[in-house]
Amino acid sequence: MKRDRKTPAGDIEVALGKTVSRLRRSQGVGQEVFAWKAGINRTYITDIELGRRSVGIGVIEKITKTLNISLVEFMVHLTDELEKVKDSKAL
User: What is the mean pLDDT of the segment spanning 41-46?
Assistant: First the structure.
């Protein structure tokens, strides 16, 4: 069954999107510039940030390189965000 791109796929996708968005904005970089630097289509970045996409490790690697952080550091941020997403659903 094909998933509607307009609906979040799950907690991990939502947390991933929020993590990418927060880290990108903390560096003062807009989506278009970020996407260009990462070599990823801007609309794809938008879908990631909105939790509409599940992404592979290759895309995550491009994102972390563009953010100039390690994969481990990114996963720490992602884990923190995932806890926030889960906690918000528990309320």
Answer: 97
